[in-house]
UniProtKB/TrEMBL annotation:
Source species: Variovorax soli
Pfam families tied to this protein: DUF1272
Name under which the protein is recorded: DUF1272 domain-containing protein
Organism superkingdom: Bacteria
């Protein structure tokens, strides 16, 4: 099950579970669409994988399967993809 991380690793922008602006790689690294497109050219800076739109969990399932509250942030910012 996806962790549904709550924020962008680059800019710390909030990305709630229903956000259409969340992008993830296969390791669930999470970025906002602006950072993914403009800064990272669609590739994860951690693994080099493709960043795609994160699926949105149905609101009715969030009570039983809540999104993660653990934020991951790169204090040095995001550089070029790996």
């Amino acid at each position: 099950m996806l962790q549904m991380r709550p924020g962008c690793e680059c800019c710390d922008r909030d990305l709630p579970p229903d956000s259409p602006d969340a992008r993830i790689c296969t390791f669930e690294c999470t970025f906002c669409s602006e950072c993914a497109d403009r800064r990272l050219a669609g590739h994860c800076p951690n693994c080099g994988g493709e960043l795609v739109q994160r699926p949105r969990r149905p609101a009715a399932k969030l009570g039983q399967y809540p999104a993660s509250t653990t934020r991951v942030l790169k204090p040095e910012g995001c550089g070029a993809p790996a």
